[in-house]
Design goal:
six-stranded mixed sheet; two-stranded parallel ribbon; Glutaredoxin; alpha/beta; 243 residues
Length: 243
Amino acid sequence: MNLRIAASALALAMLAACGESGNTISAPANSVAAAPAPAGQDWTQTVTKTADGGFVMGNPNAPLKLVEYGSRTCPTCGNFGRTSAEPLQNTYIKSGKVSFEFRDFLVHAPDLGVAILGQCAGETPFFPILDQMFAEQNGFLEKLETIPADFQQRLQAMSPAQQATAWVEYLGYLDFVKQRGLTETQARQCLADPGRIEAVAKVSETAMKDKEVTGTPTFFLNGEKIEAASWPQVETALKGAGA
């Protein structure tokens, strides 16, 4: 997929609505078994990048696999992230019963650059950075309410890579990741990397085409879309599935 296709995928994704969900999952009658983590670790320390373009935390053989398609600038996703992190990790992921995969889904114009920065540092820092982006989300979103007209005009003449960089500079995400271990050189290299741009855009393109994802957050449990947009709803689905 070239940059023209990546830009097209981004444009399509921006039409998606923040806060939509899907169908209810049917639950098995019996509870699933806990699984011990490797010696000296707990399952929240096991993070890997997946072939589907997401990052998964937890037991790779967990019987319950929770996947979220989320936008880092979506308020509903932010609320889920802030309210779910502690119970999801400490109660469900640490037990080995549940794994959690986050896949960046592009909803709003800044999402491409923000997602690239969130993934730039790799596997181990991925979820701490994601959690901290959601914790500070309101401050970033306030800047979206006062976008200068000349900034929007300049964006129109930019390539996808240039737009991604312009957004994260304007909103403060570049400084945010620099305070969390990334150098400015590393961050800018990630933002300018055509392969990263294409890979991030492809996740949204594939989700819309193959999974009928139209908004964020959208959750899947063991491959089935669930009716959920908040942590209590997701937790109900996990308990119903035996967690």
